[in-house]
Amino acid sequence: MEPREVEEKLAELLSEGEMETVPKEQAVKKKLPFKTEIRIRTAFDPIAVETKAYRRMAKEIDGRYDRYED
């Protein structure tokens, strides 16, 4: 098939029949990504455990983070 014939055939296929219309509001909702949230429950806070380990290894010059300690 020649490229021109292919283009004509494609144009014919695309223009056949009725065009499907979707209400604008519904189309916008389909384009929006759905919201997901993943929560993991733990018995302890791993960040707090790690922070305590670092604080045991070294002292800070100023005590600005002391108020966050348990």
Note down, in words, how this protein is organized.
The radius of gyration is 31 Å and the shape is elongated. 47% of the residues lie in helices and 0% in strands. The chain is built from three helices and no strands. 0% of the residues are buried. It is an all-alpha fold. The longest helix is centred in the first third of the chain and has 13 residues, at 3-15. It has helices at 3-15, 24-31, 46-57.
Average pLDDT metric: 83
Global structural class: mainly alpha
Strand content: under 5%
Shape: elongated
* Rg, Cα atoms, Å: 31 Å
Unreliable stretches (pLDDT < 50, length at least 5) are: none
Distance between the terminal alpha carbons, to the nearest Å?
Answer: 77 Å
**Helicity level:** 40-55%
- Secondary structure tally, helices: 3
Largest sheet entry: none
Number of strands: 0
Q: N-to-C SSE series?
A: HHH
Short description:
The protein is an all-alpha fold.
Topology:
Layout lengths: L2 H13 L8 H8 L14 H12 L13
What attributes characterize this protein structure?
70 residues; mainly alpha; 3 helices; elongated
